[in-house]
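queue> pop job 88
queue> type: inverse folding (structure -> sequence)
queue> payload:
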């Protein structure tokens, strides 16, 4: 999840323009905050617990209560995707997850082709659990493979082995669920570009139509972050990481995958609709412990739910309690445009800066942004086609810096 800075209040006219741009399609994110173990690189809100210690029904009850409270916020919006993230949602009893999904269907207006994704770990996904998820309406699985080498999985704190990773992907593909994706982490200490490339190719060759390939990043509030601060974490060389990125791109491109976003590859038509909504600045309803939501009404509001699972469950007992427990920020047009720049430039197609600025009621081209764009173009790091901006693939390695220069 992207972190956002504070913003000033958006005026009524600005909010109206932003509202018109995204009313037709929005999404729902449901957070399940438990894992069997906390990975040392993960900075998402998750808590280690055995499956039998989780109150599956009680948590589902709480999410449904929150849904009923928040559903009016999504009035007039057609939900194009529902994403169960975590944590490890494949730990959730499929019947309880299905009950939440059924409540979403009953409470909101969903698109006929709604994408329903569940994140899974190999330790909690087999043929039976995949079929159970299909039976409650899930049509996309995201399997957290992360690596196919035992020593790398151990370094990453994963509980599965390479055989378990492959078995989970095969189980997902054979379950009848039509769309399956998996994650791969590269840029591990001592990893060669050839190894990263080989692992990406091996996963693709299992029959996947989508892969997410992420560079290992060290976040401060993680076990890896603590080790790095003490100088005790081995790190990959920058050159090897860059070469791995390029090698993966070449390997997957040769297999027919389109590199449609910096970290994501898909066969035509298999792009992740939920994540595309984030990258395009669409609205989303967040449900569950620690979930973020973003809704535009009279103001553009981003809220976040209570981070502690027990406190979250109690907060859903009334609208007043839910409101008191959440954190909230109001974003003005300038803050929203900066987000559109940061996220939109992750896409191979880029985004239309002038259209986004017009919708948000703010100027597209300040003097400073015009100068910055000119310098980036001259250095081959940005392509401008009228009001549309994109980063050429050869310059994706510097995408975050490029976007920041346009703020």
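queue> result:
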């Amino acid at each position: 999840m992207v972190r956002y800075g504070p913003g000033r209040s958006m005026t009524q006219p600005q909010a109206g323009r932003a509202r018109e741009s995204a009313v037709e399609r929005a999404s729902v994110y449901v957070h399940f905050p438990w894992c069997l173990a906390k990975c040392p690189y993960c900075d998402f809100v998750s808590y280690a617990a055995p499956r039998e210690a989780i109150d599956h029904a009680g948590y589902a009850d709480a999410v449904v209560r929150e849904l009923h409270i928040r559903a009016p916020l999504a009035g007039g919006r057609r939900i194009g995707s529902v994403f169960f993230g975590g944590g490890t949602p494949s730990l959730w009893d499929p019947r309880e997850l299905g009950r939440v999904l059924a409540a979403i269907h009953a409470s909101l207006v969903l698109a006929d082709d709604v994408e329903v994704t569940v994140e899974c770990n190999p330790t909690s996904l087999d043929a039976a659990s995949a079929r159970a998820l299909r039976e409650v309406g899930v049509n996309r699985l995201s399997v957290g493979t992360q690596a196919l080498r035992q020593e790398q999985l151990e370094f990453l704190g994963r509980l599965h082995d390479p055989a378990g990773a492959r078995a989970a992907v095969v189980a997902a593909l054979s379950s009848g669920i039509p769309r399956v994706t998996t994650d791969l982490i590269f840029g591990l200490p001592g990893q060669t570009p050839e190894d990263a490339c080989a692992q990406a190719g091996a996963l693709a060759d299992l029959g996947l139509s989508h892969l997410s390939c992420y560079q290992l990043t060290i976040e401060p509030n993680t076990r890896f972050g603590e080790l790095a601060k003490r100088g005790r974490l081995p790190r990959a060389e920058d050159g090897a990481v860059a070469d791995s990125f390029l090698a993966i791109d070449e390997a997957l491109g040769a297999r027919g995958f389109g590199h449609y976003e910096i970290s994501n590859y898909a066969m035509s038509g298999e792009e992740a609709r939920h994540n595309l909504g984030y990258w395009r600045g669409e609205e989303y309803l967040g449900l569950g412990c620690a979930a973020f939501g973003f809704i535009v009404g009279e103001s553009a509001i981003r809220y976040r739910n209570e981070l502690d699972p027990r406190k979250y469950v109690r907060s859903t007992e009334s609208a007043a309690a839910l409101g008191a427990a959440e954190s909230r920020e109001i974003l003005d047009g300038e803050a929203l445009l900066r987000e559109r720049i940061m996220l939109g430039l992750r896409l191979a197609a880029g985004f239309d800066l002038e259209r986004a600025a017009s919708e948000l009621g703010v100027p597209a081209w300040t003097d400073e942004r015009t100068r910055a764009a000119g310098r980036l173009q001259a250095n081959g790091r940005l392509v401008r086609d009228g009001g549309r901006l994109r980063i050429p693939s050869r310059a994706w390695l510097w995408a975050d810096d490029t976007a920041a220069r346009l703020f």
